[in-house]
Structures are given as structure tokens and as C-alpha cells.
Design a protein that fits this description.
By secondary structure, this protein is α+β, with helices and mostly antiparallel strands. It contains 14 helices and 13 strands.
Length: 394
Amino acid sequence: MDLVFKGSNQPTLGTEIEVELVDDQGALATDAAATKILADLEDFEGYKHELLECTIEVITDVCPTVGHVRRDLRGKLDRLIETADRYGYRIICSGTHPFSAWSDQTVSPDPRYHRLIEDCQWTARRLLIFGVHTHVGLGSGEEAIAVGNSISTYIPHFLALSSSSPFWNGRDTGLASVRSKVFESLPTAGLPYPMENWGQFQRFMRTLIGAGTIRTIREVWWDVRPHPEFGTLELRICDGIPTMDETCATVALSQCLVVYLAERYNRGLEIPQHKQWTIRENKWRAARWGLDAEIIRNEEGSLVSLRRSIADLVRMLEPVAERLGCEEDLQGINKILARGTSATRQREVFWKTHDLSQVVDAMAEEMSSGAPVPLPDSDFVGGTVVHGNPLHGE
């Protein structure tokens, strides 16, 4: 098998977001909701089925800038919101739904998803999770491997910034991102393997296909992976992101970081690359504590605040953002650091109301407005919980 990487001369962008269809009570749709809505949208590009009927994936065109991504996504989301409303559904985007159960969901009609469930059984059936994926164009497969190896160091940064899945089946998990832990149960999901070069990546894919582990490279769901057909590096680590402003900030960070690392690689300069065990530990810390995590900064075990590391990264990338024309969107990362992520905001609403349906209401409003709700007038109550909902006897 010869995988041809169809490289791009420019750091083009593509973004995919998996949105949830919820009813007027805040619960996920359990009927053929996506099929009905997609039938109404069949004359428009950029919408497709996902695993479950409560989900629709919204896909941008190939975009040259973050500004183009914003305009493309906003138009498609507004059309989707209007169409879903005719069927009595609202749209939200978060890593998990706060209270609906995976066992109540309906599988989409696409045969690909039925094969996935047949192959993976329980690990696929419970995939009631939602993410945001960003593609950034690169020139060659060798470049994609080198940058992919390096950008794995920043997996905890992206995961913490997008963390939006503190609840699972109506319970507070005590995590900022339980989605990332649910997804890791699939046999080809989670952290990528470091590769020496494009040839080794091809050999690995040949092994998986030859063994029947996967049918196509599309069934490798790593947190970061090359996409040969698109000529991109795809960042798949992020939880669902509920607002346009936060989505575009994350897209800007993705584009700037990929460009920065690619330029250093092509100039023969060193690019950061943690050991696999350090990346694994840091990803766990980000999933558990979100922006409040301390992560390992070097192989001696020294720690740094993840907030500090993200702020330093933004400062380092500011010249790249200026060249790419996404300075304002990149600065949106600092707004996330100041306000907190969706995981923070969801807990704020729940601790105030003790009603998870109102958490959904707040996310639906954020999706429509495109911006996070402002800080409450009262004391800041979000952040990370030390303990999730306890078990009996705990």
C-alpha cells in the first residue's frame, strides 16, 4: 500500500464540529432526528451523519484563514439551528451531554457505523461523545510526521482549553474531560505512536489493514494524525466547543502552532518532543484538572502550571498569528484562560440551579450567541472539583 500525502503549499484550514440535537427538555434526541434534518439540508454541503442520530457533523470548506472558518461555520450553524428548530430541536456542542444515557440512543443508518459497533461492541456503543477536529495543510508526509510528533507535546494544552465534559450520565465525574477517557477505549484511538518518518507510517498502516484491524486510515482515531488524502495534519484531541469565539481561538492556535513547528523543522531547527510517557501523564492531568493542571515540563519531572504554559505559548506564536492574520482570534485563548472553559461554566450553572437541564439551556444559548456567558456577578464558583459525585459507602 502506497499512501500518497497530497500536500498543500499553504497552511489551509478545515474544521469539523460534532453537534448535539436536544429537545425542549434538554435531553438528546432518541429518534431518527439527524436523518430528518439532513434530508432537509441535502441541497447544502457541509453536513453529515455521525455514529448516532442525536449528532450531526458540520464541516467547513477548505479555508485559507481563521476568518474564513468563522464565516463558513457561522453560516452553516445558523442554517442548522433554523432547520432543527422546525423539528423541535436545539443545537449544543460539548464533549458529553450532561445527563442523557448512551443506552437510549439510535444508531445512524450508515453501514460504516454498524460495522464499527459490530467490531468494537460495548466500546463503540457507549461513544456518546462529541469533538472538534481541525485540519492544517502541510507540504509533505515527512513534514506531517515531524510536526505531528512535536505537536503531541501540546495535547494537554488543547484538551484543557476545550474541556467541556465534566458530566456523564447525570453525574459529575470530577474530571474536566471525561470524553477523552471514554474515547481512549477504542482500539485505535488516543495518543498517536511516534513515527520516525513517512515510510514507517505507511508500513504501520499496511500492517493494520493487512491484519484486518482497520479497513481504511479513516479508522485510526488518534488525537493527532496525518490525513494523506487532504494533505493535512488533523488535530482530533478537542472536546466539543460550545461557542464560535472559543472554536476560532482554538483553530487559530492550531494553525499558528503547526506553522511555527513546520518552519522550524524545514530550517533544520530543533522542535520540542516529549517522551511518550510524559505526554500520557500530561494528557491525564489535563483531562482531570483542566486549566488548573500542573504538567511535566521536562524529563527531570519539573512541573509548570498549564495556564502559564498556554499563556507562554500564545506569546511565542503572536508573530506567526500576525503573518497569518489571526491575531485577534489567537488572543481569544487568553480570554479562555481568564473566563474558564465550558466545563467551568457548566458546573457554575449546575451548582447554582441543581438542574442539569438548565446546563443544556445555557449551552444552547452560547451556541446561538457565539460567545461564552460572562462571569457571574457573584463569586466565581466554577473551576475544578476535587471529588465527583460519590458512590454509596464512599
